[in-house]
Amino acid sequence: MLPTVVTCTVPAGLTDSSGSSGATGASGGGSSSSSSSSSSSSSSSSSSGATDPTDASDASDASDASGTSGTSDLSDLSDLSDLSDATDATDASDASDASDPAAALAGGPSAAAPTRRRQRFERFADIECRDAPLYLTLCRLLAQRPQALAWLDAAEPIQRRPNLLLAALHERVLAGAGASLAAYYPSVGGTRLPDTDLPAALDSLLAQQGPALQSLLATRTTQTNEIGRCAVLWPALSVISVRCEGRALALLDFGCSAGLNLGVDHFRYDYGSMHLGAAASPLTPAIACHALPGAMPPAGPTARIASRLGIDPAPVDLRDEAALRWLRACLWPPDHARRQRFEQAVAIVRSAGWPVRQVDDCLAGIEPWLNSLPADVQPVLFNSWVLTYIEPDTRRRLIGALRTLVQRRSLAWLSAEGPWLKMGPAAPPPPGDAQVSDAELANATQWWLTLPGAKLESQLQPGAELLARSHAHGRWLAWAGQSRTGQRPRLRSKSPP
What we know:
alpha/beta; 3-stranded mixed beta sheet; 14 helices; globular; disordered C terminus
């Protein structure tokens, strides 16, 4: 669920003061299963989360946490270049490696690369794998195997992270290779804990599956199509519906990967004292999301989705068993609950057949979609961990183009990105509780809603409202007070094309 490199062009008339028109990288957001390159392209992430199911928003994955909670003026979006190690906070694969992920695209192997690779795996083991004995041990073993780590040089620079190699190993195990290593993987029925036989089992798989592993590293990206974020997406869509006089919504998932988020109204959400979404059923994914005290999502009228579409430069075909196996490989082996809801979501989306289209130029694909909609629906564009990975100047132009579409075509734009990408003024986060630390809140995914006609005192045009902060995989959320009461002005009419 990390970036695919693509080219998007900003058409004439779709710019604002944020930047000029030009080629824009916009991405395969739910992250695509293959990678491509272009000298004029930029990189972005996916809507679906990355591989680490545990410590996604650990403070160690931080930008300057002290600077994430205040008001930011995005009238000059050039300051968005200072993203600190913006892996999909879900994929906090190298917590101490603070750099703009887009800038990493310019990097390449160097004399210091072997040391950096080893240190990266050691840090990943110590920080991200504290509660995952298998991956902790594998990372420490891999750190001492420089030849295997060098295989990562075939990957996109931004993908050269431990969880890509861990996913490749898992994929080979899921494909039936390495019986001795499979004995340690709960995802295939393994029950052994790391022991003195594990190094030999790892070396055997590396030797037997070297070419296949190198091919995976060169062509795949870390991704999980994590539907946990729908625990925030669903109440956010309901807020949009209320603001838009209860109109049915037409949902566009911008950078959709496999399109699992399109089933948002078919999942069930448990916030502790409240449930939303579909009725409980053995076939319905159940997503638990801890709502911070006083920050429960709204429980008002629910959204009606009249149509839905996903676009991505390299969407994942759920009928392709190899592609599906890769998505499974990006889930950590012991996480049975995530595997179960992933399989349930895949079954729902595959059965429904909602359209997911391959679109090289994602931005150029928006207006044809808008033109196809009936006049009585409210179009909603949703992106999740896409903008974070686009090169700063390109990102500025893309945001300007989307703002123009909001005003000119009455598009509602819901953006869920890292804390480094603030779309407008925001109050400081609420205090944490026993389950969510202050540091996690400071580094939360931020959910920004931009509606036509909304203006803010800061002169940002149009105004963006912070709806919520959340864990990158939706394990917890803190809803903003204003959004809980629905006091923002409603959108009453659609502008002509």
